[in-house]
Amino acid sequence: MTEPVKESPRAPGRPAPRDAPATGARAPRHTYLVGLLTFASGSVDVISLLALGGTFTSVVTGNLIFIGRAIGSNSGSAAFHAGLAVVGYILGVGAGSRLARATDRTRPRPSWPVRATVVLVVEWAVLAAINIIWIVYDGKLSSGPATALLAGAAVALGMQSAAARAIDGTPSTTYMTGALTNVIEAIATGQPRRADPMALIGLFTLVAGAACSAVLFEHARALALLPSLLAVGAVAIVKLRHHAREREQPALGARR
Questions:
Q1: Is-contact 157 44, C-beta < 8 A?
Q2: Average confidence (pLDDT) over 95-99
Q3: How many domains does the chain have?
Q4: Phi, psi for 51 (deg, rounded to 5)
Q5: What range defines the domain where residue 40 resides?
C-alpha cells in the first residue's frame, strides 16, 4: 500500500497560491468600505472648518497647532473650539474602545469583527442627531448650537477611529499623513506596488468627501452633513448583513 504524498511546507517568503482568498482589511471589500469612512471624515471636517468654530473634528495634530496659535495670539475663542474638538475626539475614542471591548470577544477574531460594526452603528446614531439639528437650523447655527455640534462631531469621529483600530490592519480613516507617507515612500523607492491600496483610496475619498460637503454648503446648506451620514450608514448596513451571513453559516453546517 502506497503512503499518501505529503505536501512540502511552503518556503518562507514564497508567495501564496494564486487562488488563495484575500483576507484582512486589505481585501477589496474592506478597502472600499474603509474608503467610505474616510469620505465621511472629509465631509464632517470641512463643515466643522466652515461653520463649527473653524477647527477640525478629527485631525488632532492640526487642532493642537490651532491651540498653540490661539495661545500665542491671545485668541480665547479659537483655543476653546480647538480644545473642545480635541476633548470630544478623546471621549469618542475612549467610548468607542470600551464599547468594542465589551461587545465582542470572538476568538479567533475575524478581519472585520462585529465590535467594529457596533461602534460604527453608534457613530451613525450620533451623526443622525447632528444632521437633524443641522437641518432644523438650516445650517445657520448660533454660537451655542454650533459648539454642541462641534463636540458631537468630534465624538463621532473619535468613535470611528476606535472602530477602525478593531479592523485588521488598523486602517486610518481620520488622519492621512501616514497614508501619504506610505504612498510617496513606495514611489520614491521605485516600489509602487508596495503602496497600500487603502492609503491611495483614503487620500482620494477624503478629498472627495470634503469637496462634496463644501459644494452642498454653498448651494444646499441644510444637506451639507448628509454625505457623512449616508457613507457611515452604508458601511454599517453592508457589514451587518455580512455578520448575519456569518452567523447563518455555522447554523446551516450544524443542520447538515
A1: yes
A2: 94
A3: 1
A4: -140, -5
A5: 29-241
